[in-house]
Every structure is written in C-alpha cells, then in structure tokens.
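Final report, Chapter 2: Outcomes

The project's central promise was a pipeline that accepts a single protein chain and returns its three-dimensional structure in a standardized token representation, suitable for archiving and comparison. That pipeline is now operational. To close this chapter, we reproduce one record exactly as it appears in the project archive, with the input sequence first and the structure output second.
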Amino acid sequence: MSVLTTKFQPSKSQLLASFTNGVRPDKELYEQEILVQKAWAKGLSEISILSSLECSQILDALTLASQLIASDQFDWREEDEDIHMNLERFVSDQTQGLGKKMHAGRSRNDLIATTVKLHVADSSSEVIGLIQNLIASMVTLAQKNADVIIPGMTHLQNGQPIRWSHALLGHAWAFKRDLKKFKATKENALSVMPLGSAALAGTTLAIDLEKIAKDLGFESAPINSYDSVGERDSVIDFLQASAHFGAHLSRLAEDVIYWSSAPVALVELSPNWSTGSSIMPNKRNPDIAELARAKASLWMGDAHGVLTLVKGLATSYASDLHETKIPYLRVANDVKLTLNIFSYFIAELTINKKRAQELLNQGHILATELANHLTDQGVPFREAYGVVAGLVEKAESKKVQVHQLDLKDIQALTSGIDQKFLDQLTFEATVEKRKFSGGSASKEIEKQISCLK
C-alpha cells in the first residue's frame, strides 16, 4: 500500500501508478534529496517538532538509506510514487513510525525543487572539472606539436599557413567560454532555496530557513514561494549551457574527423580510443568524435524541449515539471560521460608532421603574403590582390604553387617582387609575422597556453 493511501485518496491502479510515478529518475537525485531531508529534520528538531532523540534516529535512518541506495540494495516501491515517499516509508519502518513526522511544514513541491537545484549545482561542478581536464589535454597536445604548420582554412578551403596548435587552441577558447556558462549555472542554482515554500504559499512553521539555506549552500531562503515551487530555471540553464558546449564540442569533433580522414591524413587516431571495422581490417574509425557530434544534437533538442515545456505553464507547481528531470538527467549524465572520454581521445592523437608539410603545398597559401608584400611597397591592396590573382592563375597553368613560380614569370606581371623576397618567403616566416595579439606566431601561442593554464 502506498504511503499516501487514505480513504480520501484510494490506492491507484497499477497503470495509473506506473504512469504517474517518478521513482526511476528520482533515484539519481538521492544524495541531494537525503541532504535536504536531513537539513529539514534538524530544523524541525530546533523548533521542537522533533525531539533530539527522534531527530537522531531519523538522521541515522536516512544515512542507512543512502548506503543502501549506493549499493543498490534499497527497496524502491513504485506505489510510493517518488523518492520522497519511499524515504518517508523507509524511515518509518526503521524508526517505528518517525517518518510520519518528518514531512511537517513542507511539501513534495518545495522538496523536489530544492533537490533538483542542488543536483544541478553538483552536476555543474563536475562538468566544470571535466572541461578543465579537456582543456588541459588540448594544451599539452598543442605544446607537443608547437612546430607543426598547416594550411588554415575558411569555407573548408586552404587559405593561409597557421600553426596546428593555433587551430586546436581555438576550440579550447570556446570551452573556456563554456566554463563561464556552467559556473553561472551553478551560482544561479544556489541563489535562492525553494525549501520552506511548502506546496505554494509558504510554510507555517517558524523554522530557521536562513540557517537551512546556509547549511545546504544556498545564498538565501525562499523569497516568493509561489515562484519557488514552479521555477526550473536551473535545469534550463544547465541544458542551455550543455547545448552551447555541445555545439563547440561538435565543431572540434568535426575537425578531428576531417583531420583524420584518409584524404587528409594529418591526424592519426589512437587505437586505444578508436574502433575497427567489422569487415575492413584496414580501417580505424573516429567513433568517439562521431558520437559526440551526434550527442550534441540531442542536447540541443532537450534544451529546446524543456524550455518549450515550461513556457505554457501557469505559475506555481504542475506535474508537467516532473518531466523536466528526465531530459535534464539524461543530458547531465551524457555530457559527463562524453567529456570524460573525449579528454583521453584528444590526448592520444598523433600529428603526422610529414603530411602537414605536404599539405602546405596545396591551395597557394602564400598568395596573401605576396599581396601584402606589394602593399608594403605602396601598391593599393586591391591592385596587389589583382596582380597576385594573376600570378595564381599562371601557377595553376604551370601546375605549381604560386610561391614556386620562377622569378621571370612573376616579374612579367609585377616588378615589386624580387629574388631576395622569394628566398625569405617560407611558411615559418609567414606565420611568425603574425606576432600581434591573437596571431599565430610562436610567442602568441605561448601566451595562449599560459592563459589557458
């Protein structure tokens, strides 16, 4: 029989109980739930709703429940609807009925709202640490390959030479912005505690809500009970931050997939973090990158779905809010799992330096440098651009790169380029000219690494 069964609230049919119960997602919230239950029990003891002995017995029972849940030995009952009633029943069984006293002055509405906020804060902390690990892996890989120069691209077409580390660290800066989003999510989740709002109108007990809030890590007790029980901004914030992170992770995944593809062959995948084909023994597949790219789409969908769910709800609590836990927990677990494995995946990539050198001689990537040289001599850039476009056309006809043209071919179109300049025209020198803030010169890469560390 359910804890909530009375003659006014008869037992539910099995179908109704199965449809309305929240036990499955609630199981993942048990650590935060038990913290909140313990804090409330202590508050009840301080105003003599519970004696010191009763409070101690309840706390011991809740500790035992936590241990049993952690070891997968807790007796979950769907007919008890959710984690709150399961714990109330368990405490009653352990303490000869004291569980019946622990719900005084509160509601499941403010209880779950508080538990979820704490879970969001904890999940945000975990994600922050995992993103920092990923950035650290990227920084280490960038340092190991600081001398590698590749064609930088726009529109997926070769444009100008850059250091490969510059391209990689570009993703690290995006993740750095994601750190700020998750830190803000945690801060916002812990700004106002819902506990004490009761069902919607606030508690009738003179319990010290400010102390409970402080003990649980919140900045303040409830401010508006009607809002507190029904807002899920922390869940939305986490999902939105995850969606932004997913977009950034997906772009890194796409770059790795491209770099490791057979036609490019710039990056070699670690056999520890890639898989083979079921039929082609010659292949290594970038499954981690591909799955991360796919998962990011689902995180975006869940973020949009939850925002859509809450946008039409009246103020205060509605059972619709129960459904926000399911996508939130799915995304939280998925983001943490993906981040954990992606750090290893990135750390063990190998850069093919010989192939990097070969790729530099595709796409006339020193053409802009020729135009800049003419501009330095007073030629208007647009005119210089036209001259170099002509040189590229001539190089195409001779099947060489523009910087490989003979001096006589170059000087047939312009006298502004001489042999001395051509002798000094190297990929390394070109990159090192980008020595100003945000550029790809070695000193700027070192500056980036220092900042990211």
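Archive annotation: The chain has a mean pLDDT of 94.
This record, like all others produced under the grant, will remain available to the consortium after the project formally closes.
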